[in-house]
């Protein structure tokens, strides 16, 4: 299959400047980046296609050869290599997008994101509330204002990487960029370090934050607090804090999306004769009518007694599953009464519909075995 035109892939004219080519590549690559389109084969192919196009159009020599000879002019089997490689593309184009700390080129690196697990009761998760949390974090040193240098002194450009924060290591045909071992990616060296932070520009601190929990959150939901993560080195911007919601197990209810489930124990006589009993909901008690001859496992739906999800949608229901309890610790008199009741049934299975159908199924099973 023939390759598409590289200018067409990036959506630029042949006379586009280097800056326009770079901007176009950023736009296409960001749209189809694998992190933004997981398990999307079409986007993955378009991303690779954009990489290939920029590797050629982003290099003056390769672009000139491509303009003159087309794809044949940049065929790696007949062309001499060199120019912008894979690491160059990502260092130059995506360094400031994905937090790459290229010292002099991309500026101070962004700080790390943080995660805080917040345990909530089901009631608080459903209704929402504002909570205060204490988070250990890293902030800029007040003494040196995050520079790492003693007040009144200045930093100097790193002589190893010339301020870029990265050095290139070549092995044969391959060229790899790595963090400068001298300045550790800062691009600057500190001659007289700050006495309070020892040249790091950062210090540890425990901060108290107020977090507003919206109604309807569930386990796994995240609340993003922008700029509340770790401070970046060299005075760089702070990362974000992600508050991860964990809803504690409830003694009565089990949540399933917008619905709530609970088991309601009823006595043998209540199941047989029917009646009315009180059941709990998150909004208070309600009456549940139990019809006569109710079997264990029967589900009763109380509409609108569930949860309104945080992402919208109608309020769910409360599903009550009745469980008929066998009486225990019987007195002698109670035992006699039950024996008399059993005798009154006269062995007729019409009083036990499930038992009747079960024995019929057993008989059919054995008939099939012997036939």
Brief digest:
The chain is α+β, with helices and mostly antiparallel strands and 371 residues long. Helix content is 28%, strand content 26%.
Describe this structure in words.
The chain has 371 residues and is α+β, with helices and mostly antiparallel strands. 28% of the residues lie in helices and 26% in strands. The protein has four domains: 6-76, Helix Hairpins (Orthogonal Bundle), CATH 1.10.287.110; 108-142 and 203-248, Sandwich (HSP40/DNAj peptide-binding domain), CATH 2.60.260.20; 253-325, Urease metallochaperone UreE, N-terminal domain (HSP40/DNAj peptide-binding domain); 332-370, no CATH class. The chain contains ten helices and 15 strands. The chain has a four-stranded mixed sheet with strand order 10-11-15-14. A three-stranded mixed sheet has the order 1-9-8. A hairpin with a 2-residue loop joins strand 12 and strand 13. Helix 2 (18-32) packs antiparallel against helix 3 (41-57). It is elongated, with a radius of gyration of 35 Å. Residues 77-106 have low confidence and may be disordered.
Task: Spell out the key features of this protein.
371 residues, alpha+beta, Helix Hairpins, HSP40/DNAj peptide-binding domain, 4 domains, four-stranded mixed sheet, three-stranded mixed sheet, 10 helices
CATH superfamily of the largest domain, by name, is Urease metallochaperone UreE, N-terminal domain
Classify the helix fraction into a percent range. Answer: 25-40%
CATH fold-level name of the largest domain: HSP40/DNAj peptide-binding domain
How much of the residues is beta strand, in percent? 25-35%
> Class of the largest domain in CATH?
Mainly Beta
Question: What is the assembly state of the chains in this entry?
Answer: single chain
Label the structural class: alpha+beta
Question: Topology as H/E string?
Answer: HHHHHHEHEEEEEEEEEEHEEEEHH
The total of beta strands comes to 15
The CATH level-2 architecture of the largest domain is identified as: Sandwich
Number of contiguous helices: 10
**Could you give the order of strands across the largest sheet?**
10-11-15-14
Keywords: Chaperone, Cytoplasm, DNA replication, Metal-binding, Repeat, Stress response, Zinc, Zinc-finger
Main location: cytoplasm
Biased composition (Basic and acidic residues): 35-49
CXXCXGXG motif repeats: 141-148, 158-165, 180-187, 194-201
């Amino acid at each position: 299959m023939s390759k598409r035109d590289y200018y067409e892939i990036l959506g630029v004219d042949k006379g586009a400047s280097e800056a326009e080519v770079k901007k176009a590549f950023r736009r296409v690559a960001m749209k189809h980046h694998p992190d933004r389109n997981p398990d999307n084969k079409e986007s993955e192919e378009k991303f690779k296609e954009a990489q290939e196009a920029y590797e050629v159009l982003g290099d003056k020599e390769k672009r000139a050869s491509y303009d003159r000879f087309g794809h044949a002019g940049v065929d790696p089997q007949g062309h001499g290599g060199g120019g912008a490689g894979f690491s160059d593309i990502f260092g130059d184009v995506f360094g400031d997008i994905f937090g790459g700390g290229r010292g002099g080129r991309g500026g101070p690196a962004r700080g790390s994101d943080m995660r805080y697990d917040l345990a909530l009761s089901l009631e608080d998760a459903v209704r929402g509330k504002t909570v205060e949390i204490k988070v250990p974090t890293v902030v800029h040193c007040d003494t040196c204002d995050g520079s790492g240098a003693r007040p009144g002194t200045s930093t100097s450009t790193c002589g190893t990487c010339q301020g870029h924060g990265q050095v290139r290591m070549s092995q044969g045909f391959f060229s790899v960029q790595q963090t400068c071992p001298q300045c550790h990616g800062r691009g600057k060296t500190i001659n007289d370090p700050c006495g309070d932070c020892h040249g790091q520009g950062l210090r540890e601190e425990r901060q108290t934050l107020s977090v507003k929990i919206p109604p309807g959150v569930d386990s796994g939901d995240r609340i993003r607090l922008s700029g509340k993560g770790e401070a970046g080195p060299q005075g760089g911007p702070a990362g974000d804090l992600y508050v991860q919601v964990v809803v504690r197990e409830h003694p009565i209810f089990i949540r399933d999306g917008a619905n709530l489930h609970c088991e309601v124990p009823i006595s043998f006589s209540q199941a047989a004769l029917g009646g009315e009993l009180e059941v709990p909901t998150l909004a208070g008690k309600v009456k549940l009518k139990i019809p006569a001859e109710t079997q264990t496992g029967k589900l009763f739906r109380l509409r609108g007694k569930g949860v309104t999800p945080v992402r919208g949608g109608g309020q769910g229901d409360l599903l009550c599953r009745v469980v008929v309890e066998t009486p225990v610790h019987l007195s002698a008199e109670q035992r006699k009464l039950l024996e008399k009741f059993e005798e009154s049934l006269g062995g007729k299975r019409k009083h036990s519909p499930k038992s009747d159908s079960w024995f019929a199924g057993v008989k059919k099973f054995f008939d099939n075995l012997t036939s």
